Amino acid sequence: MHLANLRSVVRGCGAYLPERVMTNEELSRLVDTSDEWIAQRTGIRQRHIAAEGETTSQLGVKAAQAALDAAGLTAADIDLVICATSTPDFTFPATATIIQHELGITRGAAFDLQAVCSGFVFAITTADKFLTSGSHQRALVIGAETFSRILDWQDRGTCVLFGDGAGAVVLEAQPGKQSVKDRGVLTSHLRSDGRHREKLYVDGGPGSTRTVGHLRMEGREVFRFAVGMITDVIEDALNALGITADDIDWFVPHQANRRIIDASAQKLGFAPEQVVVTVDRHGNTSAASIPLALTAAVADGRIKQGDLVLIESLGGGFTWGSAIIRW
């Protein structure tokens, strides 16, 4: 098999959400807000919250096992585990190594990737480089978060937005023809710009405050940058393949805010029925949001083998990116 002809093909996907559901009405008893205020500005109606003692790795293990089951594979088939997370169980070791151990994977590499809400797109891109180089054969790519642990529950501008959850996909190196008709990851485009740190960050860390800290965000500023940045990397992806938005079957954006999702889709020319939206019931689950949305759309029969799927995200840093995958 010629290495230049390898593609990273999705074999299966899976998701896990904590049992506890927190509605907007419940949040309105904690901070000065209301269901109407949250829903109108964000599109969020509820989010899932990890139980006491329920860790990011535990969420990740359940999502990863579901992805393995969907792929018809076992732990012995995996030689790469990448976990995108901003809320690891520990400063170290990597949450990916904990997931690796819990699943019974004993070979290959496992590591975490930190690009905040863009983490899953960055992780898919990274896994694709490993697989198409020929160094590894099958990868578990996981987005897992317990953002409820880093929220200031007195800050109504942020605590209403985020939730906990995990999603995962199994990628496998398979021969392709270097055609846009190949199955697998066809193109990806990543960007970062550290000048925007103050707009979305956590005000703590072991190397600075020796604390975990809380999430801080300038919401209007993030919104102002988001749509332009997102559409730029999507246009780059379409141009790289010589296709247009009309060729995309499904647009699966990071589930940050319904307004951002709608504005991005409208600017790019996607019909509402092409856009996969889960933010109303999941909230913003950061790196977990795209794999959660992908799994939901596969489960209900929308995304089918052969469909062209566009994913994109923007996160703190700023980081942002896109990828086009033929399912």
Short description:
With 327 residues, this protein is of the alpha/beta class. It is 31% helix and 26% strand. Strands 1-7-6-4-5 form a five-stranded mixed sheet, sandwiched between helices.
Fold blueprint:
Elements: E1 6-16, E2 20-23, H1 24-27, H2 35-42, E3 46-49, H3 56-71, E4 80-84, H4 95-103, E5 109-113, H5 119-133, E6 138-146, E7 164-175, E8 184-192, E9 200-202, E10 215-217, H6 219-241, E11 250-253, H7 258-268, H8 279-282, H9 289-299, E12 308-315, E13 319-326
Which shape, going by the Cα principal axes? Answer: globular
The proportion of residues forming helix, as a percent range, comes to: 25-40%
List the uncertain runs.
none
* Class of secondary structure makeup: alpha/beta
For the largest beta-sheet, the strand count, sense and barrel status come to: 5 strands, mixed
Count of separate DSSP helical elements: 9
Share of residues in strands:
25-35%
DSSP E strands, number: 13
Q: Give the distance, in angstroms, between the N- and C-terminal Cα atoms.
A: 22 Å
- The value of Rg in angstroms is 18 Å
Task: Enumerate the strands of the largest sheet in spatial order, edge to edge or round the barrel.
Answer: 1-7-6-4-5
Question: What is the helix/strand order?
Answer: EEHHEHEHEHEEEEEHEHHHEE
Average of the residue pLDDT scores: 97
